[in-house]
Write a structure and sequence with these properties.
This protein is of the alpha+beta class. It is 38% helix and 25% strand. It binds adenosine-5'-diphosphate and magnesium ion.
Amino acid sequence: MKIHEFQAKELFHKYGVPIPRGKAAFSVEEARRIGAELGTFPVVVKAQIHAGGRGKGGGVKLAGNAAEVDQYASGILGMTLVTRQTGPEGKIVKKLLIEEGLPIEKELYLSVLPDRGTAKIVFMASEAGGMDIEEVAANTPERIIKVYIDPLVGMKSFHANELAYGLNLTGDPVKQFTAMAAKLYKLCTDYDCSLVEINPLVLTKDGRVIALDAKINFDDNALYRHKDILEYRDLDEEDPFEVEASRYELNYIKMPGGNIGNMVNGAGLAMATMDLIAQAGAAPANFLDVGGGASAEQVENGFRIILADPAVKGVLINIFGGILRCDRLANGVVEAAKKVGIKVPVVIRMEGTNVEEGRRILNESGLNLITAKDVSDAAQKIAAIAKG
Ligand code: ADP
Ligand code: MG
């Protein structure tokens, strides 16, 4: 789960990680009032969306006076912000963060996250802050320092010192940084974060170390033990089809630019089916794993969600009937098709338990469903649909 910068900064504050003074605003009037309350200029007006790269996209503005706060707040609120992370369609800005502008001496990068490869917590830091870290990693990987921490041992002062000296910090900022790193480690592990990222972490001209940006992602599978975090969920920022799918516990991810919907049981088979669609010269419109033990109702909801997507020009259903029997699947598909109607070709390949009964249900449904003998037959039929 993703949260907004202002929410991440709330958590930083709770853990004693220094942040600029500021507050979220939901209207231009509120932005004006918060700007005045800060009492100093410049004031920074920042778009709050679940994506980074806002600065380059025009979503972060430095206001030198009250009139500019007004001007930028009304310009950014309601705008469609396009950044490298939003995709070309962008995101509509509905919230702002109004905060004090700080005198920046140097922009650094700092993140902490679990590393699957080593099963450790890794800190990544770089003096090349404020930029796209992916670019730094690709072009100048030597500018990124990594410090691995065994979670059973925990974070020690030598870990933090290694980072501080690697960032070429000297004097009091070393102390500020090491204290902050320990707090971030605690935050990351307390809340089962999949990422805590500060880009930029700034050293100010008056020698303070402050988190200027804040990004936190949470492991969805651990959210059940962090009820307080669930309150941060912002459905405005999520894909409406994904929100709908999450209501039925379906593993659905929308794939922008795709045209062939697919419904599969098991994540591995779903990935293989997406490859199959791509090989057939089409592009998958979604990932959907209905799960091994899916009910007819879940199949029905999954199929309904796929068919509701206007980008979908054809559907491939690829099911191995194990725990989910083929007759159950067939019933779910037929029920969904009757309810929502099918306006695009649907190819079904299924194999496994009760497959004969499943085929009979599909054939006798009176619906225009294309059954495939096997996977390669399904691929050819999908290719034909993709070619129109
Ligand atoms: P994004 O990563 O989405 O572009 P950031 O929060 O990193 O958004 O802001 C982009 C840039 O704007 C920062 O690198 C920094 O130079 C400037 N900036 C952001 N907040 C402040 C602030 N409070 N004071 C001064 N400059 C800021
Ligand atoms: Mg940033």
